[in-house]
Amino acid sequence: MEADEVLRSATESMALGRWEQARQQLTAILADQESPDALEGMGTSLWWLGKIRESLDYRMRAYAGYRAKQRNTEATIVALDIAVCYLSNLDDPAVAQGWISRAGRRVVRSGGQLCRDVRLPVSPRPVPRTLRADSGRNRQVGDRGD
């Protein structure tokens, strides 16, 4: 089986929550050649298997690989993923902020193109009036520094 086929199979395994199976498939790919996609997949699989620090190593290598290939959208997403992991799993806001800054620099250097590339689902329904009112109150409190 070729690396692309194995990567598709590993991606399918991850979608089904078969983390150990995905890890094994990705190990086979990475033994032959590193790719940012396989490194990111390995990082995700290891995270779900509870191997947080090992997961971060693979994600950082994926980030570097995406940057080297000028795949800025993917690099930005991985940088934010790393930041969330440092903040939520390792309680290290300083390192998390560093990764958030890296992601921000990718967005700035793209001239905002990354913001246009990433599409978030938006509800077609209007925001309820009570939420709009709360939002205004929250801004007032935030402006006071409370």
3D architecture notes:
This protein is mostly helical. The chain has one domain (3-144): Serine Threonine Protein Phosphatase 5, Tetratricopeptide repeat (Alpha Horseshoe), CATH 1.25.40.10. Helices cover 77% and strands 0% of the residues. The protein is built from eight helices and no strands. The protein has helices at 3-15, 19-32, 36-48, 52-68, 72-88, 93-109, 113-117, 129-144. It is globular, with a radius of gyration of 19 Å. The N and C termini lie far apart (60 Å).
Mean pLDDT: 82
Q: What number of domains? A: 1
Radius of gyration: 19 Å
In terms of quaternary structure, the protein is single chain
Q: Mind telling me the CATH superfamily name?
A: Tetratricopeptide repeat domain
Hey, roughly how much beta strand do the residues contain? under 5%
Form type? globular
- The CATH architecture name reads Alpha Horseshoe
Number of helices: 8
Question: Uncertain segments of ≥5 residues (pLDDT<50)?
Answer: 119-146
CATH topology: Serine Threonine Protein Phosphatase 5, Tetratricopeptide repeat
Distance between the termini: 60 Å
Mind describing the biggest β-sheet?
A: none
Computed structural class: mainly alpha
How many distinct beta strands? 0
CATH class: Mainly Alpha
Give the helix proportion (percent range).
over 70%
The run of helices and strands is HHHHHHHH
